Amino acid sequence: MRFFVFCVLSILLAFPGFSQKITISGTVKEEGTGENLIGANIYDKVSQKGTVANQFGFYSYTTTGDSLDLYFSFVGFQAKHIQFQAKTDTVINVTLVPDGNLEEVVVSASDMDQIQEITRMSSVNVPIEQIKELPALMGEVDVFKVLQLLPGVQSGTEGGSGLYVRGGGPDQNLILLDGVPVYNASHLFGFFSVFNADAINNVELIKGGFPSRYGGRLSSVIDISMKEGNMQEFKGEGSIGLIASKVTFEGPIKKDKTSFILSARRTYLDILAQPIIKASTEGDENIGYYFYDLNGKVNHIINDKNRLYLSVYSGDDKAYSKYKNFYVNDNERTDYDEEFGLKWGNFISALRWNNVINSRLFSNYTFTYSRYNFDLFSNYEETITGLGTTETNVYSDRYFSGIRDWAGRADFEFIPNPDHYFRFGTNVIFHKFSPGVYASKSSSGDNDLQLGADELNSTENSVYAEDDFNISSRLKANLGLHYSGFNTDNQHYNSLQPRISARYLVDESTSIKASYVTMAQFIHLLTNAGLGLPTDLWVPSTANIGPQKAMQVALGGVKNFNSFEFSAEAYYKTMDGLIEYKDGATYLNLDEDWQDKVAVGEGVSYGLELLLQKKVGKISGWIGYTLSKTERRFDEINFGEWFPYKYDRRHDVSFALTHEWTENKDFSAVWVYGTGNAVSLPTQRYEGAEVNTRFGGSWRPDIEYYESRNNFRNRAYHRLDLSFSWWKTKKWGERKWTLGIYNVYNRMNPFFMDIGYDQQSNKKVKQYSLFPIIPSFSYGFKF
């Protein structure tokens, strides 16, 4: 591959048009930490053209003139202005200083960072500092809960951290942590995500107009980059909250050469509850739950052209119940010790090598290993002591599922001039699926049993190419092609996916954008409740169950005025190859192949999204509105008729505000409103045929009739969250207190609905709520 790249570029660079040009390249970083400023803007006032830094801070700008007037800028940082004469290719590494007064950061010559200039549409960057300032459930900052406040994105359930983007499910989101897919991004049964905001450098959400370099999912890309560690000095920060605490350390291993970052988070619900449980059970029983996250990264600069990164994430959840007791029968005493529970978690690792091949060509090679496991277990041990004899028996039951990936990727960026930005590369992933195995064992070996599907091995590969280029001074386009293939169980699938995005500048502050993309997804998530529960199973496409496919078109306009950005987008998306459990089927039907338990169908989603956003200044935030409709159809469900998707939400409104009113105090607020989720409730109930019991009696079961799937709506959802913070500088660093209130006016929002009874034993539809008003606090520190 590398030899091929060199040959092609040698031919290109031999042309006179290339050889007479001068290239300025280098990196853009934050002063004092050395963190990459992803998407920093470089603008040449002389040519009125420019470029942007990639996700590793690298930029390349080629011009035909020798006089340059460059501006380097990034939101929230003081801009840097450099004028010079250049006769040959020149390397300029730039550091930008964070600006405390964001209102003053105005570079009139540089409009490159403005939304109307970018070709891609349906994408949003939310600054990490803004994520940290917004109100958080129980005081626990969550990246995903902030993304849920954006148009086209919703949580699905009260307090959940799942992302349902433009009518898609949580399995259709490509969630990347330093380029590695994350298969289960939830803690605490879906109420928190696995991403620790203190360890994150950049978050980008893409809902449509997907660049060709992304593939494998249908609905969205959430591209999350970890911090790289301070190259200059040792730093630390942390916080103590109601349910969890976290701490982060970073610093140089060798100054300006090698750095590290280590971040850890753990909940202590089990520790707090343990004394109460032991007291109430006289020490015989122990019930608990906890989760933890551990992020680590090492960043090493080999030389000006080569850099290595090693990043690791490990996180687990465990809910358990342990019970000890004994009983005496005749001349025997039996002591027994039993434990049951469930645990699930991710392990992610990535080794990256950045190589600047020349001033116009950048390469990145990534090698990864990741796994996601779910384990439902029960262990029982008994010791029988009699007259001079002791016998020990051990029994265990286990339900296990998971997925493991080994992957390699090569990405190249070639920037011959400011009018073209080429990206191309290839990727291969080896999947090993464990789609649900039940095993029962005993110490004697009698009646040992194993049920479930065998492990499946699959290979997924892809090749892509794209060019972001200027057609004229007003018209710019991104054209790309993504090919992907999938092999499993002697079955091979191919998919060729064209991608196109374009923008037309109406004037200096206004543009019109359009996009057309096709996507393919070769893996499926079998889900029972849509809550992102760990019982959800990842399975591959097979000879009987094909891949999921989607097509999406979008049209919109953007306007930039003063410090505000306004965007309006309309989209239409179709989805094929969707799977869902048939009525009555679950992951527990182990005597059946999962392929026989699912129905295959299609979906459609369309809507309008409006977003008014302000990223800088003492007052920042956004107002978003979504009008949408999502439906699905399966031949074997709902009589083959179309029905509303469970998370179809006609109207969705979000308001997010942060206000720094003094140098050491800030205030934030979030208000959300949404049409209620669709639910299935019976329209008729009648007595069935008489059934005889084995005890001689009989009874008549109730038979429920559902007119259609998702035939009712929950009540509308809305709530208000507030947060107030104040901080103070100490000799050792900075401390910060944060007080928050979730659901300020105590709205009893529906978590789910069911048929129940009132006080007169009359049947009625009952609503069950989860979160009332919840105050929270946290104490944070930096040093």
Biggest sheet record: 22 strands, antiparallel, barrel
Instruction: Please estimate the helix content.
Output: under 10%
Low-confidence sequence ranges? 10-19, 101-113
Instruction: Please identify the top-level CATH class of the largest domain.
Output: Mainly Beta
Give keywords:
mainly beta, 783 residues, Immunoglobulin-like, transmembrane, Maltoporin, Chain A, five-stranded mixed beta sheet, 2 domains
Plain-language structure description:
Residues 1-19 form the signal peptide. It is a multi-pass membrane protein. This is TonB-dependent receptor plug. One of its GO terms (cellular component) is cell outer membrane. The chain has 783 residues and is mainly β. It folds into 2 domains: 2-108, Immunoglobulin-like, CATH 2.60.40; 124-677 and 714-782, TonB-dependent receptor, beta-barrel domain (Maltoporin, Chain A, Beta Barrel), CATH 2.40.170.20. Helix content is 5%, strand content 60%. The chain contains 5 helices and 51 strands. The chain has a 22-stranded antiparallel barrel. Strands 9-16-17-12-13 form a 5-stranded mixed sheet, with no helix packed on it.
